[in-house]
Every structure is written in structure tokens, then in C-alpha cells.
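PT: before anyone asks, these are the final sequences, not the draft ones from last week. 1092 residues across everything. Please model them as a single complex and drop the result in this thread when it's through.
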Amino acid sequence: MESKFDVASVRKQFPILEQKVYGQPLVYLDNAATTQKPRSVVKRIEDAYFGQNANVHRAVHLLSQQATEAHEAARVEVQHFINAAESDEIIFTRGTTESINLVAFSFGEAFCREGDEILISSMEHHSNIVPWQMLCERKKMHLKVIPIDDNGCLLFDEYAKLLSPKVKLLAITHVSNVLGVENPLRQMIELAHSQGIPVLVDGAQAVAHMSVDVQALDADFYAFSSHKIFGPTGVGVLYAKRNLLEQMPPYQGGGEMIDQVHFEKTTYNKIPFKFEAGTPDFIGTAALAEALRFVEEIGLDKIAEHEKQLLDYALEKLNQVKGFQLIGKIPERHAIVPFLLKGIHSYDVGLLLDKLGIAVRTGSHCAQPLLERLGMDTCVRASFAFYNTTEDIDRLQAALNRIGNMFN
Amino acid sequence: MESKFDVASVRKQFPILEQKVYGQPLVYLDNAATTQKPRSVVKRIEDAYFGQNANVHRAVHLLSQQATEAHEAARVEVQHFINAAESDEIIFTRGTTESINLVAFSFGEAFCREGDEILISSMEHHSNIVPWQMLCERKKMHLKVIPIDDNGCLLFDEYAKLLSPKVKLLAITHVSNVLGVENPLRQMIELAHSQGIPVLVDGAQAVAHMSVDVQALDADFYAFSSHKIFGPTGVGVLYAKRNLLEQMPPYQGGGEMIDQVHFEKTTYNKIPFKFEAGTPDFIGTAALAEALRFVEEIGLDKIAEHEKQLLDYALEKLNQVKGFQLIGKIPERHAIVPFLLKGIHSYDVGLLLDKLGIAVRTGSHCAQPLLERLGMDTCVRASFAFYNTTEDIDRLQAALNRIGNMFN
Amino acid sequence: MNIDEIQENIIQSFDEIEDWMDKYQLLIDMGNSLSPLDEQYKKPQHLIEGCQSRVWIHASYKEGKVYFEAESDTVIVKGLVYLLLKIFSGRTPDEILKADLYFIERIGLKEHLSPTRANGFTAMLKQMRNYALAFKLS
Amino acid sequence: MNIDEIQENIIQSFDEIEDWMDKYQLLIDMGNSLSPLDEQYKKPQHLIEGCQSRVWIHASYKEGKVYFEAESDTVIVKGLVYLLLKIFSGRTPDEILKADLYFIERIGLKEHLSPTRANGFTAMLKQMRNYALAFKLS
Ligand SMILES: Cc1ncc(COP(=O)(O)O)c(C=O)c1O
Ligand SMILES: Cc1ncc(COP(=O)(O)O)c(C=O)c1O
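LR: through. Structure below.
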């Protein structure tokens, strides 16, 4: 395979990839769960702790000013990364899950009443299901689910039928974390907007693999996690349109999210601070900015191209494995290969792959309803990042062949 | 001053303390806002990212197992640090603020009804005020406030009078972040419990300065932030008694907090996972454990002793500064000196101290109602950690003298 | 043979094998040789659900001894179950309750004992002890 | 003198000073020399509230020129206000709107322009421009 960027030199930036597992060089194919970090990200953390660590937004002293500047510069970096109109529309959270919970609460308080509906799809991650179930339970609302076909593709006509004035929000994943299928967001959002329905996009599995433009998508909310895009754990992003954020009440109280606090009456700060209660993870946000710069320097186009080649290569190679069953025939698949080995439980497959130095994920991938719909309890998922190579795939293929032989 | 531990060698573990600010060696006296990090904590972060970074609780592969073990070992470390009965009673959050918001929501949902009351004190940080105001607004409840005297000490008799069957929870700070005053928690909790009222303690300003035993206190909830105890930003702790946690509904949905997800009905995981939605900051928790080990190795008794000596020394020295006005005459003060310089705005004081290399905090310290009660808008706060020295105090004293002269 | 002798036997047969994959091959072979659980026992009340796999277990008590039958949907867990039955089935409740199960760690499979709930193995072990206790008190 | 000439003047007087504390001494002296704002203007409608300090500002328009009076509760911000008034007061709206205020950065005080709201200085600057615009359109 010819790749447009030098994967070997990119890999050098990820020390963990040199590690051995049970004596075998690590093949890390669990990137959809979390990604590895380049040196620059970890160095940023170290430099920040040893050079400019002080609480942000609060003090007049130099360290605090530097920390605040780094934190706010990270907001601008994120803004540019997803092409938001203003940096005030970027809210830092702990992760995709918290971003969605924030919307479920605050949007729910502002806009939802008994009898209203929230629309999601059958392929959502639990983090884009449970917050809505909790909202629906609290407010006596209904959760409606867009069905998918047997391949895992969303049924657009069914979606269209489910739209109604009762629907207060569509919450949909950009890319499925099990199937890698990309949803037709532009058309979906256009249709929802034509009926005045705002749309939240769960971008957890998209941002590391394709260039995202929230304005072009016209998404009202867009959520993702730093740790899935080569950044630190503990940080997430919620993009939201100003106009919605301004109408929504705060989610958590305390710290810098206030304007004036009196026991009788408290007024809130302006956005984004209204939604950032407590000391933010200002070291984490600075490190996330570093990760985004790392990705931008490689270029998402090159990343997508490399991953596409990897995926094609993987499908070709793995299809040669006896008993290999790819899950879902999908036209546009991103960086994820979900599969079963016929007659072998995926737990056994994952466990033995580990002993051969290959990290994949098995189980229900926090998407039980999707697996149930596809008629299975668990599956194996190999998921890529730009640092993966065709050799990784070769190792996977060889390992699966070997494992297959162990069960006969 | 003679100290029982070698502050010079301890300081070597904190590279940031060697930094220069405007050409002057840094004197960091803003520890109540956030603390600096020892090498071991930052090294732990680096080692974890480059050695065992994988999503926790989810996969069968080795990296994930190692990350999970480290994360769960951190829970046990926290348990021992505050002497909780079980590690299941330790919930990881983003910080004190989120811990309190979690309780305000989940306890509120489980136990509070229209007309009920929440009791707080006049000296609370905004993070222990606003969440309760939001709860009270949502549930049409009332926030009651225990008054303080002119020195900032809680009026115990008034507290006793405010207890009633309507009070569903007392939420009180362990140590005030402005005054450094410690509240008589044992007596307060005993009295509250005698009337069946559970107690949440905001421990943000306590844990780095004294040994905390949640069982001895008999606190029902205890919240603190990693970044205020030499650990990383973005991590916090909520201790809560099992029996309460089991009765409370989850706060956020998604990820590992579930047992089974069906669109019709979702069941939740057991504690602590029920309250930890989404990918936790497993690198942060491991680094927090490292910070707690660092503190334990020095020993909180020694730390308290050193800080007491520092405080005495500071009060003696600063009282010699012309126009120095200590805020609050308090018997038991911890590591915090709040003051005004007569006739000089605290913003001007803080700004000029910064130019002399001294970092303090000025403003209302996220405790506007307290400052209002004490008859001021802002004040200057110098706050210590164990790595501060008498030389730091000398520098502060000299700087204040110099600043005083600039305004005449 | 008593429980510890069986454990030593097991440890020895795994110790002879160097390669990880060969150890697992042995476990798989053991799993495949486990006699299937009678369909009547594959009911929810006998099910122990892990996050990724399931174990069904049935116990009976005859003449002071506990007999276990069990099965799992994954072959590797079945292999572990095979070993457990070899050790526990046909023992008195006291033997079971007093036993110190060290073989799992010694053969390098302690990951299966991790508190994460990937497989139902740990829960099954607990369940076997519960059965023993219940029979003892009955 | 036009706005830029005044800025150059200011820069020069600060450039002559080496020590940070002496620069601030100059600012403090300027602040102390600022004539107090008439009490009638110290009303909420003229107040710009920072997180740590306040600025009151009043503007009037006479014969095509904008006159500002202002005050702050901190002397250092008063010093900055003094400089701003020196530059802006008595100018036409167009001069104010077109002005590029570079002196603050050049004298090393750009921290006061940070978007954090510690002092009300940035907001005051914006407010002065707003006044100019309003008078221009009136
Ligand atoms: C007493 C007290 N409570 C709560 C907090 C909030 O902590 P955090 O901002 O880490 O959530 C602080 C610190 O700012 C504090 O001092
Ligand atoms: C599609 C999708 N949504 C949401 C999440 C939750 O992300 P996090 O656990 O970082 O909050 C994930 C990852 O687990 C995901 O893949």
C-alpha cells in the first residue's frame, strides 16, 4: 500500500506503539475505544504543569494569566477545528457523554414538556440513548427510534415519517461506533430544520477520521471526546449554536459560571462560562489543542485516505480468513471493522488476539440495542487510527487464522 | 523556624517553584485556588500515556486491563486516604463542583419535594451555593443560610434553630476558602443526624491540610478536587455512604453506568459505576492516587504542623506591615491569610505583588455572599501549601511594605 | 485426591507448556470436552451474566456432597469451568468453603479473576460457594 | 497633537523607565491625579463592572467632539483611565472610532486587555467606542 504520509515517522511520535505485549509487538486496533497520544500532547501536559499551572480566569498573577490564555486559546483551536462561528460556542466538558447529558438536561429544561418526543436512531451508543431516556422519564416524554436495515443503515423514509411537531430534538451519531457507518447528516439535518427541529450530533467516532464542519452540516449541537482524537482523557467538547445556548439554563452551578451570587438571587455569566461550572481541566484543554494541531499538521484528508486504504486492505485480507463474517454491508465505512468468526465466541477471539499482541474490542460496545437489532450479543471490533499499518492487518489476519485452527 | 520535614528537599519535587516571574523567583501563595504538582504525579501521567493507555472496564486486552487496574487501585487509594468504609463509596467526578452538583441533582430527585429546605452556611463557596439554588428553583424548595458572626465564625445556636423536619440536607464547607476557618463538623453532623438530616461536606480546602476521616466525621457526602491536593486538573472525588448512593438515581447517563440498555427499559449498573457515565479520566485518577501517596509519604500531621508554623510566622510578620488588616479573628485557621491593605484596593495590591514575583489571589474568591456579609467587595488572600517557606513570607512582607509606600 | 492435589496436577500440566497459545489450546480442549449442561438448566435462574459471556450453573446435593454441572457460551470460560468442576464437584460443602483456589493465578490466568465483569467466571465462583453454604445449612 | 502622537508620548515616558515597579508608580501617580467623577455620574447606568474592580464612565457631546469623564475604584485602573481620557477626550467620533490603541501593549500593560474580566478596562474601552458611534449617528 502506498500512503501519502509517512506512517513510520508518524508512529515514532507514539511511544506506546513500541511496546510489547506477551512478548509480541503491540498491534493496537482498539482506537474507537480510545486513541494513543503523541509525544507533543504529553509534553504539553508536562510543560503546563511545570511552567504555567495556576487556576484560570481568577487571579491577576502571571501564571494564572498564562494558564487562562492557554485555556482560551484551546477554545479557539477547537472552534477552528470544527469550523464553529465563534469560540463562545465551544463548551468544555468531560467527554461526549457529559456533553450529551448537558444538552439533555439544559435543553430539556428550556424546551421540553410532557408529551414531547426525542428522536434517536437504532445505532446509538448508550451515551446517546440513556441521557434521553432519563430526560423522557423525568419529563414524561417519549423516546422515538429511527429503525435501520439489516446492514445497519438508517432508513431515511422511516426517519422522515417520525418527524412531527412533537419532536423537540433529533440526537444522532455521525459515525456508528460499531459499524463505522456514516449517517447522511446533511439531508437529515435539512429535513429536521425544515420542521423547526434542532439536531444534536454525536461526533465521538467522526472527528479523528474526517474533517468536520459544523456550520456546513448546520448542526445545532456537536459533541466529541478529546481522548478519542489523540488528546488527554477527561476532556470533551460541546459545540452549540449561540442562540440555543443563550436560551438554555445552566447545567451545573458553581465557580465561574456566575455573574453575581446572592442568596436571594443569582445571575449567570455569559456563554460559554455559564456552562462551565467549577475549575475547568485547563491543562487538559491545552493538551487537546496540541492534539488537534497534531492532526491538522498531518491533515484530515491524508488521514482519511490512509484509513480508507487500510480499510480496503483489511476487508480484502480478512475476507480470506476462514469463517470471517463482516457485520453490515455498508457503502461508506470509516476505520472500523466489526466481525464474527463463525462458531467462535467473540470473547474467545478477543482474548486470544490479546495473547498474540493484538488489542481489539469485543462485547456489545456500549450499543446493546444495535447488536440486538442485528441479532447478536457481541462481536469483535477492529478499529483503526492513522498510525495503523498494513502490517497490523497482516498480523491480525495471521492471528485470526491461527485462532480459527485452535477450535477445530 | 524549625520544621519537622525538609522543606528544601520537598520543594525540589516541584519544578515550577524554581520559575522566575518578571525576573523574580516565584513565590506561589495561591494554593487555595490550585496547588502545584510534584514530579511523581506528572511522571505518572507520562508513564500511563506511554505505557498503559486504553479504555477501562471494557476490553479484554492487556492494556485495558492494566488501565482498569490502575483506575480501580486509585479508587482504593482515595478510600484509604479519607478512610471510607468501602471503595464502592468513592465516585470519581471532575471536581468538587461536579461532586456537589451530582448530589444536588440525584439526592434532590430521590429525597426532595416542594416546600423542603436545604441548609447551607454564609461562608460557602459558590460551588456549594449555586447547585442548591438551582435545585431549590427546580423543585420549589427553600435555601436556608446559617449566619456567621463578624469574624466569620459560624453561629452554632442559630444553626441548631434552623434544623427542622423540612430540612432535607445540610451542605457545609469543612474549611472556608476565604477565611481558612474550620467548621465544628463533628458537633454539627451529630446534631443534624439526631434529626435524621444527612450532611454533605465540601472538603475542597481541607484535604491538603489535615487528615480527613469520613467515618469519624460520620459525613454522608464528602467532596474534594484533585487539583487542590497536588493532583491533576479535571478529577474530583465524591465520597458518599453506600446506602444513600443506592437510593439515588444516576446523575448522567451513558457508557458503563448501565447494566442493560433497551429502548423500552434500561437498568443501571451497581455503585460506584452507576454514577460514572462515560469514559472516566482514568489517567487523571491514577495521577491523583500518586498525589495522595506523595502527601501520605510526607504525612498530614507534619504538613499541618509546618503550615501552622508558617501561619503563625505570617501573622506575626504581616501585622508589622503598615495598614495590614487581617480579616476575621478566628481561633482555628488553616493555611489561609485573608487581608486588606488600608486605603489600597486589593486588585492593586495583587497586581503589584505579581510584579514582585508573588502570586496571591484577589477578588471575591467565589464567595460573594461571604464578602458581602463581612462588608467588603474584595480582599487579598495568601494561601499556603507545605512547600511554602518563611522566606516566602518574608518576601510577601517586604513586598507589601514596598507597595504601601507607592500609594502615599 | 484432595483439592490441593488436583490444583497441583492442573498447575503441572500447564507448567509443562511454554507458549501462551498452547496453554489456551489446552483450555479450549478442556472446554470442548465439558459435557453440555442439560437444557432444562439453561434457564434464567441458573444464569450468571457477564458483560461479554454467560455461565449457567446447576448444583445438587447428594449424601453430603455437592455436585455441579455448568456450561458457558465461550469455550475458554468453559475450559475454566471444566477445571472448577474437576476441583469442586463431588466435594463436601466444607471442603468447598475452605478451599483456597490458587491454581488460576499460578497457571497465569488471573486476569479472569479481575473484578471487571467481562466474563461471569468470578461470579460463578462466588455462586458455587453460595451453593455449598446453602447446602451445608440446609 | 493627534491620537498617535499622544500615544507616542505616553510610550516614551514609560520607555524611559526600566523597573516594572517604577512604571506602575507612574501609573499610580497618574491615577491619583485623575479628577474625580462628579457624584451624580456614579450611578449604575454609568458603571462597568469587572470581576474585581469597577469603572464609571460618562460621555458628553459638544460641537462635534466627545468628552469623557471616568473613574475607577482601583488606582491602577484609574491610571489607565487617565491615559485613555488623555487620548480620547475632546476627539471627534471618527477619530475615536478609527484609532488603533497600541500604546497599552507597547508600554507592557497588555495584560489589562485580556478577555478575563478582572477589571472593567476592556469593557470601558468598548463602551467609549460605543458612545462615539452613538454620537456620530445621533
Ligand atoms: C471551598 C471550596 N469549594 C468548592 C470549590 C470548587 O472546586 P472546583 O473548582 O475544583 O470544582 C473550591 C475551589 O475553588 C473551594 O475552595
Ligand atoms: C459514538 C459514541 N458516542 C459516545 C461515546 C462516549 O464517549 P465518552 O465515553 O468519551 O464520553 C462513544 C465512545 O465510547 C462513542 O463511540
